[in-house]
Design a protein that fits this description.
Largest sheet: 9 strands, mixed
Helix content: 10-25%
Number of helices: 6
Strand order of the largest sheet: 1-2-5-6-7-8-15-16-17
Structural class: alpha+beta
Oligomer: single chain
CATH topology of the largest domain: Penicillin V Acylase, Chain A
Number of domains: 2
Strand content: 25-35%
């Protein structure tokens, strides 16, 4: 990469990691970054996450050990000028770390768009244009969406929606709304119609207007999780994931680490759960419900709360595809299904795992679900390796390992 003058202000090792980023594909969707410096000096500058839809699962490998499959779904647009999902862009960066202050080496994937999500300036091709300031990539290790460490602990993050607290306010005529208000407003023309507390598409501070009854409500969302236990440091979900990969050998150690922090959602209309798995075949999903950490034994998940009876959220259609795949395998092996079990009697190879990810991909070209699958990844927990397909191109796979 051509070095921007501002990169010289970074510590040598970090600046070198940015300078040596390499483009992996012709379009400039995928890049690779070898990061061997102490990034914890930059922790306080990390960016917040926002909404994304994802799917994750753990399966036995037919070659021995376990495979972890993961889709990361989101629609990004150049300079945040939204058009149609078919014009979605992206910036995917595989980040390999060897932090001298960490216990383990790691391999993970980031959505580089979030490094400047407010302006939407980081998208396909930008890191290799020779003019863009790449200083923000110094924070790349802290925004991994999924990753693995050298001893086989793997993790991924999946979005969860928050509920809507509708408060009645003074009536607003829809014509009086500005463009920003109109973009997220709900307009009802039927008398008696009220906004839904569980509508997952509602944005914080959105207005709901019933023109027949001359009523207006405003959505005020509280942080989904905002723990404030005395004596604990506060952290965000992706930073916790980073620390888990750097310092934890297995699921049990990662859970223990999670209990030492107060978790906080970065934005009021976004929550997340984290899936973890290790080489023993144990897999769990961590959720923070009513300010309490819940550890749920689960082999797969999407974008609804497994720890709530109402299973509030979305992605139930994708979950059902995964459920059918795993339950049918259990029935074929055991003669009956094992509901709520984390035992995996089925086996698959990496190609079959990738094919399953393709089945639950979000593909606007085929009108499958909503959004856009930026990448599909299959982690081999024994090899601490990753096979990656990007932007729904399942004919091409990129392979990475933690070893140089």
């Amino acid at each position: 990469m051509k070095k921007n003058p501002r990169q010289f202000l970074l510590p040598f090792g970090i600046g070198r990691a940015i300078d040596r980023m390499r483009k992996e594909d012709e379009r400039g969707i995928l890049y690779f970054m070898d990061y061997k410096a102490n990034y914890y000096t930059l922790e306080k500058f990390t960016a917040a996450l926002t909404k994304s839809g994802c799917s994750s699962f753990l399966a036995k490998s037919s070659e021995g050990g376990y495979l972890f499959g993961r889709n990361y779904d989101f629609c990004h647009y150049k300079l945040n000028q939204k058009t149609t999902p078919e014009e979605s862009t992206g910036l995917i960066v595989v980040v390999r770390t060897a932090n001298p202050r960490a216990k383990y080496k790691t391999l993970g994937v980031i959505d580089g768009f979030w490094l400047d999500n407010a302006k939407g300036t980081l998208f396909e091709g930008v890191p290799s244009d020779g003019v863009t300031d790449l200083t923000r990539f110094a924070m790349a290790p802290f925004i991994i969406m999924d990753g693995i460490n050298e001893v086989g602990l793997v993790t991924s993050i999946m979005h969860l929606p928050t509920e809507n607290d509708w408060q009645e306010v003074e009536y607003r005529d829809p014509e009086s709304l500005d463009e920003k208000e109109k973009e997220i407003a709900l307009i009802f023309e039927e008398s008696g119609k009220k906004p839904d507390r569980f509508d997952i598409k509602v944005k914080n501070h959105a207005l709901a207007i019933n023109t027949a009854d001359h009523l207006t409500w405003k959505a005020n969302k509280n942080l989904a999780v905002n723990q404030q236990e005395e004596g604990k440091a506060t952290t965000l979900h992706p930073i916790l994931m980073r620390k888990m990969l750097d310092y934890c050998a297995n699921v049990e150690e990662a859970i223990a680490m999670a209990k030492t922090f107060n978790m906080k959602s970065p934005l009021p209309d976004n929550d997340y759960h984290i899936m973890l798995a290790d080489r023993t075949g144990r897999s769990v999903i961590l959720e923070w419900i009513n300010q309490e950490l819940q550890v749920i034994e689960a082999a797969y998940g999407t974008n609804f709360y497994l720890g709530r009876e109402d299973r509030y959220g979305y992605g139930h259609d994708r979950y059902e595809i995964l459920e059918k795949r795993f339950e049918n395998s259990n029935e074929n092996s055991n003669g009956n299904s094992n509901e709520n079990s984390n035992e995996l009697s089925n086996e698959m190879n990496s190609a079959e795992a990738m094919a399953l990810l393709e089945k639950v991909a979000q593909n606007p070209f085929k009108k499958q679900f909503v959004g856009f699958t930026q990448w599909s990844g299959v982690y081999d927990l024994e090899k601490a390796s990753l096979k990656l397909s990007v932007f729904l191109d399942y004919e091409k796979e990129y392979e990475y390992t933690i070893k140089n």
